[in-house]
Amino acid sequence: MRTLDPATRARTTARVRELVEGVAAALRLSAEVEFIEGYPALINDAEVAAAVRRVGARELGAENVITPLCPQLGVDDFACIAERVPGCYVDLGARRPGGVEEPLHSPRFYPDEGCLPVGAALIAAWAQSRA
């Protein structure tokens, strides 16, 4: 189950358990709910995200820095790091111009590796801005 924050995850988990057990009891049955915890919500640190946007606008041009209009439910193990250290997840953009858009974990995903120097430059510029 994916949620945007830990509190919603806890409430939703409790509510699912309550509903399942309630329906089972109404039918004179028993039910057991087991949740296997996956990755936590990936929550960007607001200050780090703002700094990365500023550096990105300076280095790549403001028109190339896109902030999603609403939160996204993608998951990544970076979420575990971001729980402990302020950080910011960045979608670099690796689709080949004119290429077919395939999901990241598709066997047909074929990134434009030209994005790698751009990403490295962005990380280096952000690191220098912190010095």
Automatic annotation (TrEMBL):
SUPFAM superfamilies: Zn-dependent exopeptidases (SSF53187). Signal peptide: none annotated. InterPro entries: Amidohydrolase, Peptidase_M20. It comes from the Bacteria. Gene3D superfamilies: 3.30.70.360, Zn peptidases. This is Amidohydrolase.
